[in-house]
Specification:
This is Shikimate dehydrogenase (NADP(+)). This protein is of the alpha/beta class. It is 40% helix and 19% strand. The chain has eleven helices and eleven strands. The longest helix is centred in the middle third of the chain and has 19 residues. It is globular. Bound molecules: 2'-monophosphoadenosine-5'-diphosphate (ATR).
């Protein structure tokens, strides 16, 4: 029986088993990984909770949750949520507690930040997050914790960006007694002339929209990028993603895709389960060679 699984539908394409096997191999003789067996688990679309329950009854210790169950997993765990999972409104990691209950966490945002920090210090930077769906929501708190200079969220539907800031970012900053400029934008606001006029360029621009999935270009102008900007796409692909191609044409030197975020979120989950911090770099390099 596996002690750890990734649950999704579909699941055959998931790279998580490879990643976790590589992490476990880094601690081959450690007692914390002696019973670490990680596999894929396909849940029927209407059978998420039954699938987790059967896994738990068979001795399951932890699970990753992927598309399309992250929001359902969030509801399923009820009160047992970490702050970042509560803010994300989604759970990607389930951790079995000593009393048998499941805690829901979300390591996606931490995986993103860990990958960004491999390239740039986020403190004091002007961050622009593109998109206001689930992926953007999960990134908000982990980004704010890095104490950027400002955080702007731009979305095709501007009201959704505003709602994300009002519901997640502003209350968290208030609770921390921290003040930092938050800005909700529509893509219209990112056209060259408007941005140049008020000088609001960004040092870190993160694509959290799903536009790349359809190979679509985002309606943003070249002038949003500061001279030393970093462009980050949460998506990854064998070749360059449409957003990173756009950034390259805009003259952005540092362009990073989301493969490191994928490995990073897995590393955070692995550490939650085993208490061991895996070395991400060699696994990321190995994954890069695979795609
Ligand atoms: P995810 O979980 O990947 O974030 P989601 O919650 O459905 O998926 O959110 C998708 C995000 O991508 C949204 O911000 C969406 O913009 P809207 O809120 O206006 O729908 C954005 N998006 C999707 N397709 C897009 C496109 N072709 N151009 C621009 N934004 C797009």
């Amino acid at each position: 029986h596996p002690t750890y699984v990734v649950i999704g539908h579909p699941i055959a394409h998931s790279k998580s088993p490879q990643i976790h096997a590589a992490f476990a191999a880094q601690f081959a003789d450690h007692p914390a990984v002696s019973r670490f067996v990680y596999q894929q688990l396909l849940a029927p679309l209407d059978g998420f909770s039954a699938t987790v329950k059967a896994f738990a009854d068979a001795g399951g210790r932890g699970a990753n949750v992927t598309v399309p169950f992250k929001e359902e997993a969030f509801r399923w765990v009820g009160e047992q949520l970490t702050e970042r999972a509560a803010a994300a409104g989604a759970v990607n990691t389930l951790v079995r507690q000593v009393n048998g209950a499941w805690q829901g966490d979300n390591t996606d945002g931490a995986g993103l930040v860990a990958d960004l920090l491999r390239h740039i210090d986020l403190r004091g930077q002007r961050i622009l997050l593109l998109g206001a769906g689930g992926a953007a929501r999960g990134a908000l708190l982990p980004l704010l914790q890095q104490q950027p200079k400002s955080l702007s969220v731009a979305n095709r539907t501007q009201s959704k960006a505003q709602r994300l800031l009002d519901e997640v970012a502003a209350p968290w900053l208030h609770a921390q007694d921290v003040s930092l400029p938050l800005q909700a934008l529509g893509f219209d606001d990112l056209l060259d002339e408007v941005v140049v006029a008020d000088g609001s360029q960004f040092d870190v621009v993160i694509n959290a929209t799903s536009a790349s999935l359809n190979g679509e270009r985002l309606p943003i102008g070249d002038a949003i990028f500061s001279s030393k900007a970093l462009a980050y796409d949460m998506m990854y692909s064998k070749g360059e993603t449409p957003f990173l191609a756009q950034a390259r044409l805009a003259g952005v030197h540092t362009r990073v895709d989301g493969l490191g975020m994928l490995v990073g979120q897995a590393a955070e989950a692995f550490e939650l389960w085993t208490g061991l911090r895996p070395n991400v770099a060699p696994v990321l390099q190995w994954m890069r060679e695979q795609i």
